[in-house]
Design a protein that fits this description.
The complex is a heterodimer of chains A (141) and B (163).
Chain A lengths: L3 H14 L3 H15 L17 H19 L4 H4 L1 H11 L4 H18 L5 H19 L4
Helix pairs in contact in A: 1-3, 1-7, 2-3, 2-6, 6-7
Chain B lengths: L5 H13 L2 H15 L16 H5 L2 H19 L11 H5 L4 H4 L1 H10 L5 H18 L5 H19 L4
The chains are: A mainly alpha (141), B mainly alpha (163).
């Protein structure tokens, strides 16, 4: 449940991430692959070494999707419908992995935002990412 | 048995050497109680936790965060000491014997405090965020991985006496 204040805060944060989408996205993915090596099993078709083109490109896509979701929080299910189908029927990622990436996204934001990543901002982003992944996972079964 | 590389030990010790407990401890518990509000159920005796502002200025919240960090620190400083110690410091000082070092703390959390062990992971995640915010780009993916391995061993030790 996000308050109006939290929804605005989330939009502000993700709007700032769009210009650095490749940096933020690739860092979050790299943190996930390093801390939770089992997540690499879904990326055997890509070169996910640090700073690789694939990693930066994929990271950028994720951040852009999150920014898109942030601007359409009230209609997440509709906005994310194509991505939701993609994750359910094509990617078929084990649902526990969403939490691992969410955690690494939060850690990346904390590293880059420093003092601006207040407990209130942290709570809002955590709730947003949970809602986002719930929509991505809703067609799994 | 947990095997630590020299690099992992160095990373963990370095993190603690740079951590200001009096500063980070209060921030840790602020985040836990604000980001995961259901954890407030364990802190009925802490007084006013009704808003983020109340939590941030609550002295009992601040004090408890510091106690928890000292628990982790002591563990690292007494690697061979299996005597019962308090807090998370223990794990740091007893990296090779975290399991036994935490027996009493695990019993405390399960039988007396009755904390759902799922919440240990949440505390660990918040502590990781506290470190990330303070260390910024120095909190590299490799350091994060070593740190999270340390946390998972501590959490597993804390959960061991639950039945």
């Amino acid at each position: 449940m996000l308050s109006n204040f939290e929804k605005e805060l989330i939009v502000q944060i993700w709007d700032k991430m769009i210009p650095v989408a490749e940096d933020i996205g690739s860092e979050a993915l790299l943190r996930m692959f390093t801390t939770f090596p089992k997540t690499k099993t879904y990326f055997s078709h890509l070169d996910i070494s640090p700073n690789s083109d694939h990693l930066r490109c994929h990271g950028k896509k994720i951040v852009q999707a999150l920014a898109d979701g942030a601007r359409n929080i009230s209609t997440l299910a509709t906005t994310l419908a194509p991505l939701s189908r993609f994750h359910a029927y094509l990617l078929r990622i084990h649902p526990t992995n969403f939490k691992l990436l969410n955690h690494c996204i939060i850690v990346t934001l904390a590293c880059h935002m420093g003092d601006n990543f207040t407990p209130v901002a942290h709570a809002a982003i955590d709730k947003f990412l949970s809602a986002f992944s719930a929509v991505l996972a809703e067609k799994f079964r | 048995m947990v095997v630590w590389t020299d690099q992992e030990r160095a990373f963990i010790q370095d993190i603690f050497s740079k951590l200001n407990y009096e500063d980070a401890g209060p921030e840790l518990y602020c985040r836990v109680l604000i980001v995961y509000p259901w954890t407030q159920r364990y802190f009925g005796g802490f007084g006013n936790l009704y808003s983020a502002e109340a939590i941030k200025s609550n002295p009992m919240v601040a004090a408890h965060g510091i106690v928890v960090l000292h628990g982790l620190d002591k563990a690292m400083k007494n690697m061979d000491d299996i005597t019962v110690l308090k807090g998370l410091e223990k794990a740091l000082k007893n990296m090779d014997n975290i399991k036994n070092t935490f027996t009493a703390l695990s019993e405390l959390h399960s039988e007396k405090l009755q904390v759902d062990p799922g919440n240990f992971q949440l505390l660990g995640d918040c502590l990781t965020v506290v470190l990330a915010r303070r260390m910024t780009t120095d909190f590299t993916p490799d350091i994060q991985a070593a740190w999270q391995k340390f946390l998972s061993v501590v959490i597993s030790a804390l959960t061991r006496q639950y039945y």
